[in-house]
Amino acid sequence: MADPEAAPSQAGGPTTKRLDFKHQTLDDAYAAPANLLEIEVSAPETHGIGRGRYTDYVIRMKTNIPIFKLKESTVRRRYSEFEWLKRELERDSKIVVPPLPGKAIKRQLPFRGDEGLFDDEFIEERRKGLEEFVNKIAGHPLAQNERCLHMFLQEPTIDRSYVPGKVKTT
């Protein structure tokens, strides 16, 4: 007797059984994804005066990926620390590291009619570019194993004398 779940064969030969699939419930559909990784770059803040002036940003991460020791973290980072992360990944990992938003050399020239690097519009554009950069990197499975990424996302300060390498899962 033929199996009612089997699909008919086009050539009249043996039939194949259809795969069983699990119907998705509302709980399944709205549960946290298996690999949640959300990173937001926000709250730009400008510090200092004159040549010592700089802007830093809040980086808020939320994840359920087991390799990250903290499931939620918040740190402040400035542009030069994003540059550090990029250099470390280019030196030690096997991934193609995306570009950072540019240095904006022209905005650093004197006698501009605006605030240059500290203009609100420029800071917002840079914030968006930095958020895109860090999300691309953190979403890469090979980059997720790099110590420098973990330090950048989860440690209050970056230890520039750290020993590069992979994060060990426990």
Structure in words:
With 170 residues, the protein is an alpha+beta fold. Helix content is 27%, strand content 19%. The chain has helices at 26-30, 79-92, 120-138, 147-154, and strands spanning 6-7, 16-17, 37-47, 54-63, 72-78. The chain is elongated and about 80 Å long. It starts with 5 loop residues before the first strand and ends in a 16-residue tail after the last helix. The model has no long low-confidence stretch (mean pLDDT 81).
Keywords summarizing the entry:
alpha+beta; 3-stranded antiparallel beta sheet; 5 strands; two-stranded antiparallel ribbon; 170 residues
Layout: helices, strands, pairs:
Blueprint: E1 6-7, E2 16-17, H1 26-30, E3 37-47, E4 54-63, E5 72-78, H2 79-92, H3 120-138, H4 147-154
Antiparallel strand pairs: 1-2, 3-4, 4-5
How many separate helices?
4
Task: Please give the share of residues in helix.
Answer: 25-40%
Structural class: alpha+beta
* Strand percentage: 15-25%
Chain-averaged pLDDT: 81
Uncertain spans: none
Task: Please provide the ordered H/E string of secondary-structure elements.
Answer: EEHEEEHHH
Strand runs, count: 5
